[in-house]
Design goal:
Distance between the termini: 51 Å
Shape: globular
Number of helices: 10
Number of strands: 0
Radius of gyration: 23 Å
Order of helices and strands: HHHHHHHHHH
Amino acid sequence: MSRITAGNIFRVVLAFVFWLFVAFYVLVIGIGAKNKKVMFEGGCYAAVFIAAVSLGSTGAIVGLAAMGLSAVRSYMLRDLWLPRRVRKSERGNMVHEHATMPPPAQPYPTATSLPGASDNLSSALAWVSAQAKQNKHRLPGDTYVTILETCQMLDSVIDAEILQPSGDARFEYELEAVVREYLPTVLRGFLAIPPSMVDNRQPNGRTPNEELVEQLGLLLGQAETLHSTRHSQASADLTTTGNFLRERFGHHQQGGFDFGIK
């Protein structure tokens, strides 16, 4: 997945050219994505900035703060205005892969930690992001943003696994299940429902729209758990290495280094 496209480069150039209006960027992003939550947030930044400007020099700090917050949030919401590019080969592979997706054979299989496996997970997220963007007009409420946030969080976990595999079979199984099974299945199942039926009550009293919102919320929670677990483990590993180095070489600090040679 890559963000380097002609359209994205043009948008970034425009963002730099009109940097004085950075306080309005989140509002513009929300309007472009047709996301009410983002539009409301951007409207708040814009309103605060306008009020600060009207106060003159006394509101300069408030105005700069609104610009800074809007700039940070614009970067965090980059998936809404700087979409990733999905290669045609990856898109074709993902459509075929998910059309014939088999159920997990065994729980918690042996961890392989192979780069190829991580590449497949990245391709799976690319497929989900592409489908969500292509059908965002059909997705209810904030589910489009929820999908992008989930993909972004899982992508961070996958990058960490590529850089330094955890070797935890259960963690890798859960990560693969969410990326390749649960998330694509939920999205594909919803998109298979005709738009005229997404508000119809099912026997359980819920509509397909309500089911999608709840299921994506559960998957976002699981993605947050995986993200927290993976990066907490990385911090713990770094601390363990630090403890070893302090124990191994710390006593040489006062008397000069002997490089551990006795």
